Amino acid sequence: MSKVILHCDLNCFYASVEMLYNPKLRNVPMAIAGDPKYRHGIILAKNVLAKKTGVKTAQTINDALKVCPNLVIRKPNYELYEHYSKKVRDLYYQYTDRIEPFGQDECWLDISESINYFGGVEKIVEELLFRVKDELGLTLSIGVSNNKIYAKLASDLALEDNYKIINSIQDIQDMPANTLLFVGKNINETLKTYGIYTIGELANKPISFLEKILGKFGMTLHNYANGIDDSDVCRFDEISDEVKSIGNSMTTIRDITNIDDFKIVLTTLCDYVSSRLKKKDLYFKTVHLNLRNNKLKIKTMQLSLKENSNLKKDIYNNALQLFEINNCNFKIPYRSIGVSVSNLSSEKEICQVDLFDDNSYSLKDLKKEQAIELIKDRFGSDAISSLRLLEEDNLIHLKKNDG
After folding, report:
1. How many CB atoms are located within 10 Å of the residue 251 CB?
2. What's domain 171-225's superfamily in CATH?
């Protein structure tokens, strides 16, 4: 049976929760924002009235007040938001145990096994919309498809307190390419350079061509455009018990303004992630790179490999490729970098080796990295280090955040 995947997105989640406790905020433009004193002075969420004035998520408070001088700002109450996020997930669990969160306000649901029991896809969707609004006072946008990528796109297109169904590429082929998940500004500009403006045009390009202009990410985007995504929505117990990703991020004392500094921090992060992978006897297939500049704007990217790996060099090379293919630069310096890996498994995939591909998985590389790990375990993590890192006092003392 074909999968039936929902993507449920709570509308204006933080702002909606605040308006539940203070109904007067429904009648004024209002936004949730961090504290400027701690460098978190950006808009995290806004209500519909604020959106209509031009206030945008991730905008600085100062810029938001320029477009909307009477904007009412509330500090975030994360405990309250988590409380409602859990309540909504508890409601989802009444329809399926295959639920995968995508942040506090979004979830994928696999209802393939629930359709007959609850009377059909549209009946389940309409019940979810009604119950979230009636029982919790919140509203949803729901996307419906046979895969996670199209379901996410459908929820982005759905109106507030409503749903949209995407069945195939024919439903979305004329839409702009940047409406597809993970097609950011830089990738979209690259696609436009080659005359690719729509999802349909992206879907029809040969994989070899897309890999030529985007690297390995080209195949991923080709598959996403064509609705090819066989990744499962996790069960509740899988989310709770299994390691879904391994990562680490660092906030530097001084801004990162050039590629050399970036590579130093990237090397340190990849060392840490690779070491944790090997200790857990896990292999990854997807690399994620997260950047935050000193204007507090966040950029996230990901790239999937042809075969899984546990090597540091594969994490590093693919993270660096993400930086390059997304046309990242240092016009606005970076303050924080994060690297993580996902699509984890406990077994190495068997893949035919290309004799002319230097990036193929190598037992020689594995033994070399294992030898370095043994030295570090015995003599300390600083026993082997980059000479450049030792020379950079301003980059040695880093604030690390495990992921």
Report:
1. 16
2. 5' to 3' exonuclease, C-terminal subdomain (1.10.150.20)
C-alpha angle 265/57/222, rounded to 5°?
65
Locus of tokens 């992630």 = 273
Q: Which residues pair with 184 in a beta bridge?
A: none
Q: Mapping DSSP to helix (H, G, I), strand (E, B) and coil, where does residue 242 land?
A: coil
Sequential pLDDT tens for the chain (403 residues)? 489 999 999 999 999 999 999 999 999 999 998 765 544 578 888 999 999 999 998 788 888 999 999 999 998 888 899 899 999 999 999 999 899 888 789 999 999 999 999 999 999 999 999 999 999 999 999 999 999 999 999 999 999 999 999 989 999 999 999 999 878 888 889 999 999 999 999 999 999 999 999 887 889 899 999 999 888 887 655 544 456 788 888 877 778 899 988 998 898 888 889 888 887 888 899 999 999 888 777 888 888 888 888 888 899 999 999 998 888 889 899 988 999 998 888 777 654 444 444 555 556 665 665 565 555 555 555 545 555 555 554 554 444 444 4
Class of CATH domain 1-167: alpha beta
- Domain positions in the chain are 1-167, 171-225, 243-402
- Which amino acid, residue 206? P
Contact 334, 263 (CB under 8 A): no
Which amino acid, 241?
D
Give the active site residues.
Answer: 106
Distance CA 115, CA 122 (A): 9
Beta-strand relationship, 106-110 and 72-74:
unpaired
Q: Find, among 360, 367, 365, 231, the residue nearest to 286 by Cα.
A: 231
Query: CB burial class (10 A; 0-12, 13-18, 19+) of residue 56?
Result: middle
pTM comes to: 0.63
Q: Which residues are CB-contacts of 255 (< 8 A; sequence separation ≥ 6)?
A: 294, 333, 334, 335
- Which SS3 state, helix, strand or coil, does residue 271 take? helix
% helix, strand, coil for the chain, step of 5: 45, 20, 35
* Pairing mode, strands 140-145 and 162-165: parallel
Distance from chain centroid for Cα 281? 24
What superfamily would CATH give domain 243-402? DNA polymerase, Y-family, little finger domain (3.30.1490.100)
